[in-house]
Amino acid sequence: MLTIRTSFGSPYGRKARIAVSILGLDGKVKIEPASTQDSTDPLRAQNPLGKVPVLLRYDGSTLFDSPVILEYLDMLAGGGRILPKEMEPRLEALRLEALADGILDASILVVYEGRYRPPEKLERKWVDMQTSKVTRALAVLESAPPDLDPTPNVGQITLACALGYRDFRFPGTWHLAPGPSAPRCLARRLCDTRAGLRGDHPAARVRPNQDRVDA
């Protein structure tokens, strides 16, 4: 059986967990916990970057990070399920995934800035730079809202995880427009499905204190 190792507070790991469920791979892929902070955890040997998620293959080789894992899972499920085969839809899904991953990357850097620096040494220019990335990305999403496919693609999955993480760490900060915005509806619809619930909201899955160190 394949293994995905992740911390349950990681939105990138949540992407992989949701993909496993959407693709019906629960019987082929098991999820195991990993710690990015514990130097004795084998994670650093499985991924020299020490990041989650990491996928352990049958032959002992590993795959990382989440975009690569999602593409592999899609191929394992026959291909074209969450990553379209046709060029234009595929590029659009990958572009959305990159945008949503960028939201996550910038958001986590802000979290880490507050976590690892004392308040008096907080680098406000750095925080503002990361925050502006998120603001611009969300404005683009509001101006050209993505659709939700019957089987959500890699971009839609990643966006739902990014918005869920923003709600988790920065409550209310991505609700830019009044009324039912498309990104908000996307996150709600995905999280209301079995797939979304399989991934679960990070706040419901984090063990005591784990959330403080695993994104």
Question: Number of domains in the coordinates?
Answer: 2
Q: State the low-pLDDT regions, or none.
A: 193-214
SSE run:
EHEHEEHHHHHHH
Number of strands: 4
CATH architecture of the largest domain: Up-down Bundle
**CATH topology annotation of the largest domain:** Glutathione S-transferase Yfyf (Class Pi), Chain A, domain 2
- Major sheet details: 4 strands, mixed
Strand line-up in the sheet with most strands: 2-1-3-4
Q: Span from first to last CA?
A: 27 Å
Q: What is the CATH class name of the largest domain? A: Mainly Alpha
Helix content: 40-55%
Helix and strand composition category = alpha+beta
Q: Specify the number of helices.
A: 9
The Rg value, from CA coordinates, equals: 17 Å
Shape assignment: flat
- Mean pLDDT level: 85
Strand-residue proportion: 5-15%
